[in-house]
Amino acid sequence: MIDPQVVEVQSQEEIDEMMVDKSSMDMVLVPCALVILLGYHLLLLYRVRRRPHTTVIGYENHSKLAWVHRMARTAALALGVITDGVSASTTLASLCIALPSLIAVSGDTNQAAPATATTAKHASLLACFLAAFTCFVQSAGCYVHASFLVSALGSDDAPASDLRRDVLRGGGFWSAGLRALYVATALLAWVVFGPAAMLACSVLTVAVLHLLDSNSTPLHRHQFTP
Q: Which residue of 35, 113, 131, 190 is surrounded by the most CB atoms within 10 Å?
């Protein structure tokens, strides 16, 4: 006759071994996923700084500079475009606050995970959403300040260079907020499905972003760009 206590001890040992194996996977796969995401964005930052014509961000910034010079003559249209930017930034900022609340209410689907691991997962996810929220709020602030400058364009008190700076900063914070959301998506895969899913999501995200961030269109020599 099999002793129930022996069976219980063996079952507990098997559970402990599974938890150790999963912790080991977290220690290996999660840093690999983060390195992939961080490495890609560092490379993208280098390309934006050194070779902007090869990136969509550099292409858009080049067009924004020409747009600012054009809007110096049609301030009413410029206010409409900037207002759209403010609305988009505030909408995503609100989303970044609402999503962590929903995730916290739903809880971790893996109830067997240790409390420390669960806390680390949710803390990392919350940090990404807060970073995205901060970037979108800063983006909205830059666009709001740009809207004030538009009404005074053409005077010595509000040169076009100030408007260019705020428009480019607003776009930069917008891009940074989106990148934080992409990282949060990979972390969400870790919370729900495990470290292997996070690594797969990170690789897929980098592959898609590489296609979306690359630009092969030559920069147009706008009439209003120097």
A: 190
H or E segment to which residue 18 belongs: helix 4-50
One-letter amino acid at 116 equals T
Angstrom distances, CA of residue 30 to CA of 26, 179, 188: 5, 18, 12
Prediction pTM value: 0.82
- The Cα–Cα gap between 194 and 188 comes to 9
160-193 vs 75-106: helix crossing angle, rounded to 10: 20
